[in-house]
């Protein structure tokens, strides 16, 4: 499935070893804004720190267990979109994402998730997609809300983030909801 052409300017591609330094630079240049919401940022202090995760991402993709893809905008790496573990029995998965500060507000993630959702529901025949966001991360929460994901509720103090707990909001989209949304 990867690479996945979202539109003329956006492409999702599996992160591979040759992308390591570019990915590290993206993380490092956006460290302050990413660290506000993502626990793994401090674990990435050099390009070499990405070697084991890139190996895991490759293995997951080969085993049809999701993917971690770079988001390229006009051939420039601007973020990542992850399709987490796929529960094939229940036909469910979840999506995570981040974007460089300079690329935010342009509809890149929204457009990517919309196109990917159509693929997941129509081609992979999944039934449920979830997105979880920190309650106070309003930019991240705006994405599933704009696409039509349903807010299922808030898990109180569900994630320890460096020095405090964050409430986590869970959104979901069902195949039948997507079919109704696309046909209207």
Automatic annotation (TrEMBL):
GO MF annotation: an example: protein-N-terminal-alanine acetyltransferase activity
Organism: Paenibacillus amylolyticus
Superkingdom of the organism of origin: Bacteria
Residue span(s) of domain N-acetyltransferase: 21-172
Record key words, sorted: Transferase
Pfam (any one): Acetyltransf_3
Protein name per the record: GNAT family N-acetyltransferase
Entry keyword annotation includes Transferase: yes
A GO cellular-component term linked to this record: cytoplasm
InterPro entries the UniProt entry points to: Acyl_CoA_acyltransferase (IPR016181), GNAT_dom (IPR000182), Ribosomal_N-acetyltransferase (IPR051908)
């Amino acid at each position: 499935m990867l690479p996945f052409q979202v539109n003329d300017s956006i492409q999702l591609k599996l992160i591979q070893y040759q992308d390591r330094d570019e990915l590290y630079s993206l993380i490092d240049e956006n460290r302050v804004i990413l660290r506000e919401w993502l626990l793994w940022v401090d674990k990435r202090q050099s390009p070499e720190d990405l070697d084991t995760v890139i190996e895991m991402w490759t293995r997951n993709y080969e085993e049809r267990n999701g993917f971690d893809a770079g988001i390229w905008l006009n051939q420039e790496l601007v973020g990542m979109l992850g399709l987490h573990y796929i529960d094939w029995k229940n036909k469910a998965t979840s999506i995570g994402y981040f974007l460089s500060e300079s690329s935010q507000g342009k509809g890149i993630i929204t457009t990517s998730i919309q196109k990917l959702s159509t693929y997941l529901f129509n081609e992979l025949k999944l039934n449920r997609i979830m997105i979880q966001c920190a309650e106070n991360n309003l930019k991240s929460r705006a994405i599933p809300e704009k696409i039509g994901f349903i807010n299922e509720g808030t898990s109180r103090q569900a994630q320890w983030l460096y020095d405090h707990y964050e409430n986590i909001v869970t959104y979901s989209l069902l195949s039948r909801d997507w079919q109704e949304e696309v046909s209207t």
